[in-house]
Amino acid sequence: xxxxxxxxxxxxxxxxxxxxxxxxxxxxxxxxxxxxxxxxxxxxxxxxxxxxxxxxxxxxxxxxxxxxxxxxxxxx
Length: 76
Fold this sequence. Notes:
The protein has 3 helices and 3 strands. By secondary structure, it is mainly alpha-helical. The chain has a single domain, classed as Molybdopterin biosynthesis moea protein, domain 2. It has a 3-stranded antiparallel sheet. Helix 1 (5-12) crosses helix 2 (16-25). It is rod-shaped.
């Protein structure tokens, strides 16, 4: 699916200026139709997959209990 820069900015939750700069730098692939840039949003699928995996790993790490330290001695 192709989107314009404002639509892509909303899709990525980024400012339009940043998306425009990334297009001009070549960090986001786009096609210029003579009046505007069109961006194929399927290029972001892998990014969103990796983001979900990172969120899951962070949540698993956060919920892992801290093991007791065997070097700590009970002084009571």
